[in-house]
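User: Here's a structure from my thesis project, written as structure tokens. My advisor, Dr. K., wants to see whether a designed sequence matches the one we expressed. Can you design one independently, without my sequence as a hint?
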């Protein structure tokens, strides 16, 4: 089983690892696109105004542009430790120990606008590029990534069950036929339901933690739902789609 997470806009700074080496990342078939996007971001960082426009930044966020300028020289962290925010707080990788941590590192992956697909231990620098960013002279990132990423994800899906927790814009970078997908709905006292916005990420983080650390090996959506229920989550299943129900 592979649990495919969205990235986060916010990232831990610094790192203990050496500078980025694409050959050390998983999915080497993605390296040509990775290298091209890295070079374009480094070049773009030389024009702060163009960088702000392309990346949706304000002048107060120019440190993000500096990160992009240093993509090939900055220290690295494992991908699962690089990303921060609500989902990653709920996942709480740092608290997993022993066999549970080993299982998490083998099962977790992250969809990335810059790297396409990362496994949990892949060493990466801090960067700024979102799925909705539009780099000068390029088509959309979805158009850039899909020819390379679709076959990589299809190959993974042939060998492992994929649980796709990515948001819509990141799911568009690479399609996964047959993946288990998940949404989160809040149920009001009268029984009506509404889409959860901000805390959607927290509940997906809880689910990711349960799936990453469980001793069981789910092979289908029913197995994923069973793991979620053992983690005290209320889940409904329709085919390969799961809905996590939370109190409004």
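Assistant: Designed independently from the structure alone:
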């Amino acid at each position: 089983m592979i649990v495919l997470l969205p990235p986060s806009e916010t990232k831990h700074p610094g790192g203990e690892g050496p500078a980025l080496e694409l050959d050390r990342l998983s999915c080497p078939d993605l390296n040509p696109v990775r290298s091209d996007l890295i070079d374009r971001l480094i070049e773009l960082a030389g024009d702060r105004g163009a960088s702000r426009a392309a990346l949706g930044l304000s002048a107060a966020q120019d440190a993000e542009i500096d990160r992009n300028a240093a993509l090939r020289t900055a220290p690295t962290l494992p991908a699962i430790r690089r990303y921060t925010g609500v989902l990653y707080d709920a996942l709480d990788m740092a608290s997993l120990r022993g066999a549970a941590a080993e299982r998490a590192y083998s099962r977790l992956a992250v969809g990335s606008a810059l790297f396409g697909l990362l496994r949990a231990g892949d060493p990466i620098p801090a960067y700024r590029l979102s799925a909705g960013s539009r780099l000068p002279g390029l088509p959309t990132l979805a158009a850039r990534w899909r020819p390379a990423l679709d076959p990589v994800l299809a190959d993974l899906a042939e060998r492992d069950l994929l649980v796709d927790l990515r948001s819509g814009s990141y799911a568009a970078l690479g399609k996964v036929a047959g993946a288990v997908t998940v949404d989160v709905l809040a149920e009001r006292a009268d029984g009506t339901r509404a889409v959860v916005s901000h805390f959607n990420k927290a509940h997906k983080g809880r689910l990711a933690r349960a799936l990453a650390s469980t001793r069981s090996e789910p092979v289908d959506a029913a197995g994923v739902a069973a793991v979620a229920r053992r983690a005290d989550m209320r889940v409904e299943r329709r085919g390969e789609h799961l809905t996590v129900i939370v109190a409004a």
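When you compare it with your expressed construct, this may help: The chain has a mean pLDDT of 96.
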